[in-house]
Amino acid sequence: MSIPAGTRLGPYEILSALGAGGMGEVYRARDTRLGREVAVKVLPQSVSADADRLRRFEKEAQSASSLNHPNVVTVFDIGESNGIAYMAMELVEGRTLRDLLAEGAFPPKRLLGIAAQLADGLARAHGAGIVHRDLKPENVMVRKDGFVKILDFGLAKLTQPDVAVTDQSRSPTVTVATEAGVIMGTVGYMSPEQALGKTLDFRSDQFAVGSILYEMATGRRAFVRPSAPETLAAIIREEPEPMAAAAPGTPTPLVWFTERCLAKDPEERYASTRDLARDLARLRDGPSQSSVSAGAASALPAKTRRRRLLAWAAAGVAVAAAIAAAATWNRVVEPPTFRALTFRRGAMGGARFGPEGQTVIYAAAWQGNPMQLYTTRADSTDATTMQLPSADLLAVSSTGKMAIGLTRDGNRVVAEVSLAGGAPRDLFEGDVRVDYAPSGDRMVVCRDGKLEFPPGKVLYDAGRDKDLISPRFSPDGRWIAFIEVSGVRGAIAVVDLEGKKRILSDGWETTVCLAWHPQTGEVWFSAREFATFGVVNLHAVTLSGRHRVVARTPLLLLVQDIARDGRVLLRADDWTETTMALAPGAAKETDLTWLDDTDVADLSGDGQKVLLNEGGIGEGANAAVYLRKTDASVAVRLGDGTAYALSPDGRWAITKRGKDLVLLPTGAGEAKVLATPGLEVTGPKWFPDGTKIFYDAGPAGKPTRLHVQDVGGGAPRAIGPENYFGRAISPDGRFIAARDVQRGGFLIPADGGDPRPLPGGKLEGRILSFDTAGAGLYLASFENPLRITRRDISSGRSEPWRQIDVADPAGFMQYNDVVITPDGKSYAYTFWRALSRLYVVNGMR
User: Number of folded domains in the chain?
Assistant: First the structure.
């Protein structure tokens, strides 16, 4: 189907044809709304006419559009016009890698420049849970300036083999579905598991990368036979000609990386595509790549070489192998050295080098004491307590001033004080983040979603729904880097002094701090990648958006500062979530922590069992539900999801899995999904008779209301007005204790009706539950210590009920949750603990 110039597809005016393939025709078009040129891919009629495949296309395109990476083509829009389904995306001026390969093998320098970018873009997609499934030279564009763009994420699921397979490199995707047992991919680049119709993951894309690397290095395809079935058989059973023989000038490490990608067993490939990208980037950035010969690598069969390499990695010798490889490039890369500056037990705040680069100033709360400021030398372990109020360190100026964070009467205050001593001078109130300009004492300020420099002059306004944190001036004073947080996602951004803002890297979680590297010009930042729960690694990104991982460890690496000579001030944290419980009749609390992120969801009415959530490193990419007795016997894993409440008879746990409400059996039985069409549900809890549940819910972006739902079936029923949040139900099941946005307390009839205000004014603290008689409410205040009060429903009077203190306060951060039995005699609670150590690191690259 050819579309003539001048045709309109939605807001896009077709200008000319760019090309065609198995995944559709591509046209140059003009976006009439924004006046820019775009590429419009028109999907085959077989997709446009199939409602199911069109829905899957829209879902995949939405996933692809979330990828914000310089090496992935940006998807702007999807739509349908006159029965034609299309996708509008970034227009890339350049040539496909297939066209470039027609000119023959690539020299190592050019090969690595393309390969490192390809792997970096792919790693970002894999980190977001997106697998390409049809990576091949036709889907890699190379601009005239050498910049690489990956095309067609997600479309491999959609294209049927509408034409016969002829040219095995240019053939369309041969797939119609995603389930195991169906072959999908392009012949010649699919992995063995693809060829066998098995379930795929990101390692299948790594095999395609290996095939592309092989072809770029040798000028010939790794797997090509007279027919498609023979090619598939070769992919499954045979090895390609050794690269060392086919291209003797190939750098030896590149041979290793390629053979690892081409391993038949996915387990022998890279555990993370980010590691592949890092290996290729390091090889690209090392000197004299083209002079490193692969001749010595040809002495062993390919399978033996690959197994030996993997054995080295498994034994922890991969670092030594990298150093040995670097030595062949006439440069020995020494590993970084870590010098610990702190040894006491507790949590730390900010840390900075002093103006001369030898003094280190830091904030720490040792042994559970309030946070204090300390000074030390980078070559010493002796620290001096600064004679200042309890405070966190925010910034240090080149003239010897400090910006510190104080708390007065429950309010946060930013103050300034000299390193030489004196009384702090208040500057700002509220949640304000600051940094000093490289020279002088001028400050950049982040507050209320705005970045100001100097204070009062807004350079960038992100809006109140976003939070701007960790502002840091570049060493030359031309840029201000900061973290833009929206919900749980964080982006690394910069703004110049004219207010022009640029996103360098996006889509991170737990993005907490950053610093400029004065020698490389990179922004180093600490962040967690998606689907790597609990692990915060150290990353770097250039002003052009090129990203790399600097370091990964089991601890959380929080960069604090980087000296002019490249020394890194690094905080290594261990964060854990601990659950304690007082069992019935027990004299002291029991530690019920199971893995590393144990959060209590509910406590049975008799105090004998706790319902737990685990969502940290121990569970990996899954959040999981556990049931454990308060006698600390072995926890039982009930299934994936997030737990909320135990049924009164203890037989069921109400949980969420994605957007679905799921009843998990605590013993024998099958899980049940409760239909909540169009509702986003929070805080489900049981009625006392166990036949119904209640929860807060509303359509996406709409106000919430209380809902009641029968667990045996039936649609949810809304009760009460909007924005009243239900927290507990009376023992007779007649009333739900709720609060409104002004913290007022109300009783809402479970059968419907107007809310009844509770006497006594605002509710101070979180509603936990009714007491046994239904005459009072337990409320929790989450300061330290945690205080539980009982609010009499008739009179509105509050009285202290119980105080909970953490026995070991070292590193205590905050209480997360607390649950209590109706008689008030047993309880369980969860708190966060952070244990920190500060290092000066030499040689970190």
Answer: 5
Domain that holds residue 55: 1-91
Beta bridge partners of 652: 665
DSSP 626-693: EEEETT----EEEEESEEEEE-TTSSEEEEEETTEEEEEESSSS--EEEP-TT-EEEEEEE-TTSSEE
* Four-point Cα dihedral 146, 148, 149, 155, nearest 10: 130
Residue 196 shares a structural domain with residue 321? yes
Whose structure tokens read 């994420």?
Answer: 153
Task: Kindly state the tokens that stand for 398.
Answer: 């080149």
User: Is residue 176 located within the same domain as residue 113?
Assistant: yes
Nearest residue to 329 (alpha-carbon basis) of 299, 297, 290: 290
- The two structure tokens encoding residue 234: 């070769």
Beta-sheet strand order (sheet of 450-452): 433-436, 443-447, 450-452, 458-461
Match 């996103």 to its residue by tokens: 503
Task: Identify which of 457, 438, 456, 452 has the alpha carbon closest to the alpha carbon of residue 482.
Answer: 452
Looking up residue 614, the CATH number of its domain turns out to be 2.120.10.30
For the record, the structure tokens of 390 come out as 């309890």
The per-residue pLDDT for 530 is 57
Identify the active-site residue in 31, 134, 205, 602. 134
Please, what sign has the CA dihedral across residues 447, 449, 454, 456?
Answer: negative
Q: What one-character-per-residue DSSP string does 223-272 give? A: S--SSHHHHHHHHHH--PPPHHHH-TTS-HHHHHHHHHHT-SSGGGS-S-
- pLDDT < 70 positions in the chain: 1, 21-23, 46-48, 56, 60, 63-64, 154-185, 287-333, 530-534, 620-621
Given 525, 559, 593, the domain boundary residue is 559
What's residue 127's pLDDT?
85
Residue 160: what pLDDT? 36
Q: Is residue 394 part of a domain?
A: yes
Phi-psi region of 714 (alpha: psi -120 to 50; beta: other; left: phi over 0): left
Please, which residues bridge with residue 777 across strands? 770, 791
Q: How far apart, in whole angstroms, are the C-alpha atoms of residue 43 and residue 21? A: 10
Tell me, yes or no, whether 295 and 351 share the same domain: no
The reply to whether 468 and 535 lie within a common domain is yes
The answer to whether residue 842 is domain-embedded is no
Q: Supply the CATH number for residue 292's domain.
A: 1.10.510.10
Residue 83 included in any domain: yes
Are 663 and 757 found together in one domain?
yes
Select from 54, 52, 40, 58 the least CA-distant residue to 83.
54
What's the angle, vertex CA 145, arms to CA 139 and CA 149, rounded to 5? 25
What does the pLDDT look like over 685-706, one tens digit per residue? 999 999 999 999 999 889 999 9
Q: Which residues pair with 527 in a beta bridge?
A: 537
| Same domain assignment for residues 619 and 706 | yes
243 plus 315 within the same structural domain: yes
**Closest CA relative to residue 404, chosen from 384, 376, 375, 427:** 427
What residues are paired with 756 via a beta bridge? 747
Q: Would residue 134 show up in a list of annotated catalytic residues for this protein? A: yes
How much helix, strand and coil, in percent to the nearest 5, is found in the chain? 15, 40, 40
Q: How many CA atoms lie within 13 A of 442 on its CB side?
A: 13
Do 41 and 122 reside in the same domain of the chain?
A: no
pLDDT recorded at residue 709:
97
For residue 566, being part of any structural domain is answered with no
Q: Is the peptide bond before 785 cis (omega within 30 degrees of 0)?
A: yes
- Rg of the Cα atoms in the chain: 30
- 742: three-class secondary structure by DSSP: coil
* Six token digits for residue 661: 């409400």
- Number of alpha carbons in the 13 Å side-chain half-sphere of residue 508: 29
- CA 644 to CA 744: how far, in whole Å? 24
DSSP string for 679-732: -EEEEEEE-TTSSEEEEEEESTTS--EEEEEETTS---EEES-TTEEEEEE-TT
